[in-house]
Amino acid sequence: MLQDPDLILQCRQVTKQVTTGEKTLDILQPIDLRVKPGETVAIIGASGSGKTTLLSLLAGLDTPSQGEIYLKNEPLHKYDEEQRSAIRAKHVGFIFQSFLLINSLTALENVMLPAELAGDEQAQQRAMDMLEKVGLADRAEHFPSQLSGGEQQRVAIARAFISSPDILFADEPTGNLDSKTGETVSKLLFELNQQQGTTLVLVTHDNELAAQCQRQLLMHAGELQETVKAMAEVV
Amino acid sequence: MMSVWATQSWRLFRHELKRGELTIIAIALIIAVASVFSLSGFSAQIKSALIQQSNSFIAADRVLQSSRPVDEKFLAKADEMGLEQAQLLQFSSMVFAGDDMVLGSVKAVSNGYPLRGNLLVAQPDGAGSLQVSVAQVPTSGYAYVGESLLRILELNVGDGFELGNSEFVIAGVIDKEPDASFSVFTSGPRVIIHMDDVAATGIVQPGSRLTYKYLFAGESIEEYSRWAKPQVLETQRFRDIKGQQSPLANALNRAESYLSLASMLGIILAAVAVSVASRRYGQRHQPMVAVYKSIGASSFFIRKLYLLHWGALAGISILVGLLIGYGIQYLGIQFMADVVPDVTLTLSAYPLLVAIFTGVICAVAFAIAPMRQLIATPAISVIRGFAGFERRLTWLERMPPLLAVVVLLWLFSQNLLLTGALILGAAVIVSILLVVGHLLINAGRSVGSQAGQAFHLSMANLKRRAKANQVQLVSFTIAIQLLLLMLVVRNDLIDEWQAQLPDNTPNQFLVNVSQSQVPAVEAFLQQQGLVASDLYPIVRGRLSAINEEQVRRRVSKEQEDASEQGRRGIGRELNLTWHRDIPKENEIVDGTWFDNDNPKAEVSVEQELAKRLQIGVGDTLTFQIGSESVTMPVTSIRTVNWQSMQPNFYMIFSESVLADFPATYIAAIYVPGLQKSEFQDFLQQYPTISIIDVDAIIAQLRTVISQVSLAVEFILILVLIAGALVLIAQVQASMEERERELAILRTLGAKGSLLTNSVLLEFVILGAIAGVLGSLSMEIGVFILQTQVFDMSVSIHWPYWILGTILGAVVVGVLGMASCYRLLKLSSLTLIRRTL
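^ inputs. structure came back:
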């Protein structure tokens, strides 16, 4: 076991293959990655390069075909769906491109959700505080369909941070927003991230957003390369 | 404090209910429960009211008939159960008045007779004229007599006559005897005396041919029947109004079938609605499950959450369904009050239980598969989306809904034949649908490529979503089919039934017409222009051997249970006739009718009797007629419509066999009210001719039919609601995918009018295809019903094909547009935002 206890996220020789019909496709070539606590990492790359697949493996939503993934020293690759669920509940927060709020719950109830699942008795108060932080306290009782895209993503951010996750995964968090709203949302994301000292792993097309992260990784045809800020401008 | 899953579940439930997201599934469940509750309660009450009314035709709820006094235990048990009782003793005996005499058909009755219906007797009022009123049993020493007795013996009310050793005074003329024999073969004028007078007449001797009838009526009659039936001896018969081979019994049984059928169609439709809506429920909740899981909720948590959510939904829906069902029952009974005065709204346990059970079974059986799929939604769907995760259901997973429908239908109708016919029909229909639907959508695609742009786009859409559309098509088709089937039942089948009792249905039977009177009777009928059946000669004879094997040995319990005529025909004497042409309403099913140019000794046998005796064309039968014995081959097997008010025969011979035997004749005649007095005058000249008045039975038959038709109409409304719900639920289920497509097309620059037209066309085409398929499957359904359940001739219903197709196109088109209207009105930006 070569895991480094100082790393929050580590993967070794992780691959992913998908079988469609008789063909087997290699989505990810063997990938190694080490992320320290508090680091912000952007994974950039063209569509179909495999970046979202990698994100889903890192977050424990899916399992690799080969290789090892450790999140907070937990061997995700060995765990079944239920165990990975428990790890996510404890350590992970999410922000999705399509927001994925629960339509039948109010903004406040959506934000409360992770805290409630974690058994936090102050869930409601903390959710109100979070909404305050993202500037939506007055929209607490609104349902997602009554909110604009930017507002929905702010609610999603509040939901992601409420249980102070150790690591936050964001999948194209500004992808569905116009550039101005996108800016507001990303600003909020990094602010909260800094306040809570959360590790952030985000997948994006948006170079400006990627540039705000400490590290940029380039995904190309299933291979991951560390890149410098300047190079990111080129991609 | 509530646990987290319960809080979440309740919170979702509360919001979704308020926001109308559960409306469709709730309404589907409510309709299933409400319709089962109202229909089973309602039709049970209509049925029991009909039977109650009809019971007057046997003067009781049940009759135990025997040729000897029955065991005391039957009477003691009835006493114990608080049933009303009365006894009858029937026999034939000579009635004397001076030098005249006639063979009378005597009925001795005990106090209390009749238990159901009324005995109407014309008795002298104070002013000396006869007044018809409801009469009690005659007091000792007095008798009520049939009018023909007065004619034959030239007596008047107040005169006396002798019967055995006793003398009786005529107290009145029988106007209506509730349980007058349905058999046209009873003869001899009726004499009713009190049971207490029988002994004194000295007529009842060992060896006398007697019929004892024990009448029972009361609330616990069903329970009594269950107790009594197994104890009834082979020589005894225990029967209710439906257990006889009479037109009325047939009508009642058929009425029951119609009511059950109509209600079952409603239940199937409601079940389809629940099934469609629960699928939709599952799909709609998938994103929620994925989000819950991505945040770290366990499967166990999700399972508990949805168990509660679904449970609360089902529980509340069932409750509301019961309330609404009760309301519908109330309305229905108000609606029927004019025609069925005896119906009252009573809350009985069985419909309530069946309704609750229906709700539970629907909620469980139809939810299992969608729920399992829902709970299995993987967390990764938050990234990959929900397409492709829906597994194909295994056969095992498809079974619960099918089983549920079978159980429900059977529970509801308690009629295996109907249930089987419906299920078989449904299976055939669904398989045809899947194949034909696929072919049609494919065919449309190639036509579409040559048609306009909107048409092309809509066909492309249909084709692309072929699989989803197949499911939609099946449910649209089933909805349309059941609606059409209901309409056909309401209109054609009931009309056809009604047509079997036209206005000039014979209402009088002439019996005992002698050979010498035949010309006079024929002349009278012609002169009065009366509609009559042919005159049929009757020769009494006994079937003595089949293929030269003595027949006695073949008599079994089954035959003892058969109808009055059938039993006498086999066990005792049979009414034989000969006829040159095949009678109306008879149909040869095997062999050929007599060749009159080439006269031979032949016999034609009724199908059911032939089955019971296990005889077919080619067997030879030997009959004992008087002292002679005749043998002839069976050359044809016939069906007989026992519902027709015509003289019907088990055995019809070729002329050469019976022509030389002395015969009496019978005929059925329709005598309109206005001509009744001429008819009476004519009969006055021929006192030996008896008439049997069946007006009352015909009136009751008509009532049964009109009540059933009204009740079916009422059920039709419920079926319509359920049908509309299926359509709405199905259209709604496809909304999300449509939303995504519209967004894409909009983005690609499709004009609003093009999108509107293509959506409209897509639904119209889908609806029209469903209409055609619905009509086709309706026709299959009707065929199964006509041939297997109602014994009717097969017919095709073209107008309904047109109606079905147009109805399908218009209704599905309108519903589809109405549901998409909101989407079509959205700006492309909003659409894209909402969906991508």
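The two ends of chain B are 40 Å apart (CA to CA). Chain B touches chain A through 30 residues (CB under 8 Å).
thumbs up if we can close this ticket
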